[in-house]
Amino acid sequence: MSNRREFIGTGLTALAGLTLLPAINSFANIDNSYQRTAFAKPKLRFAIASDIHYGQQGTPYQENTENLIKWLNADHAKNHLDMVIINGDLVHNRPDLLPEIKTKYFDRLNVPYHTIPGNHDFADAAIWKKVFSYEDKYTVEHGDVTFVLANTADTKGTYVNPDNAFIKASLDKFAGKKLVFAILHIPPIKWVKEDGFLDSPETVELLHSYPNVKAAFHGHDHLLDGVRYTGNKFPHFFDSHIGGDWGTAYRGYRIVEVDDNYGVYTYQVNASQNPLLNSDRF
């Protein structure tokens, strides 16, 4: 597996714990088991995965996608998932494959799922609505927890700022909710020069301006599986990758749990059970 980026800038936490609401960012054990310390049973538990790159030549994309469905259904059977979010790059430069990945794979998930485009999906609102019956920006409510999802690329794969007017209207609408999470495939800030991320200070300011917006979740960079921060410790979580020809040595997804007091616990699952989590080549 190739490594597209030779350096990951400062601000990344992959293995260390952190406090968020409170929340913990950590890895599950090699067999994906773990011990809940914050609470016995969450009121909301969801998985977030990204970067399947279905259709990328030279990669086992069918096997990777099949594994994702197997892993998530097994997780649901063992611990219960309320929903799954697939955060961009479902396909690899082939929007014509979106109906196939939906019907052949996603529709076999045993839990509700939600998707959002990435830069390799080459999709806009019309394409997304035709395949998934909703547009490329929308909200999902789960009781007092709300998700705001927005596209960060166009039909040519160019990075574009999310629709900030939509984000603001959504955050205004849900200002009374206990928790709001933002789902954006491409992060809205360049932490270091080498980052292939967006530079959208307006988006960052919006995320910082509403006290109930507690975290953002991103895909896009297959090497990132931890958390970076903006402002006064606002967390942006990553979830490694499922497919593609570069990234972390393992393939996995992130679990997020919300307790009765709206505390959040999150950890990264090493779903392929490859114990090699960090490596360097000189």
Q: Please, what is the oligomeric state?
A: single chain
- Tell me the helix content: 10-25%
Please give the alpha-carbon distance between the first and last residues: 16 Å
Low-confidence stretches: 1-28, 277-282
- Physical arrangement of strands within the biggest beta sheet: 1-12-11-2-3-4
- What is the domain total for the residues? 1
- What is the alpha-carbon Rg in Å? 17 Å
CATH superfamily membership, which one?
Answer: Metallo-dependent phosphatases
User: Looking at the structure, what is the overall shape?
Assistant: globular
Going by CATH, the architecture would be 4-Layer Sandwich
Number of helices: 5
Number of strands: 12
Mean pLDDT: 87
Question: Tell me, what is the CATH class?
Answer: Alpha Beta
Task: Map the helices and strands.
Layout lengths: L24 E3 L16 E6 L11 H19 L3 E5 L10 H7 L8 E4 L8 H8 L4 E6 L2 E6 L13 H10 L5 E6 L16 H9 L3 E5 L9 E4 L3 E4 L15 E6 L5 E6 L13
Can you describe what's shown?
The protein has helices at residues 61-79, 98-104, 125-132, 164-173, 201-209, and strands at residues 25-27, 44-49, 83-87, 113-116, 137-142, 145-150, 179-184, 213-217, 227-230, 234-237, 253-258, 264-269. With 282 residues, it is α/β, with parallel strands linked by helices. The protein has one domain: 4-Layer Sandwich (Purple Acid Phosphatase, chain A, domain 2), CATH 3.60.21.10. α4 (164-173) links the parallel β6 and β7. The radius of gyration is 17 Å and the shape is globular. The two termini are 16 Å apart. The model is unreliable at 1-28 and 277-282 (pLDDT under 50).
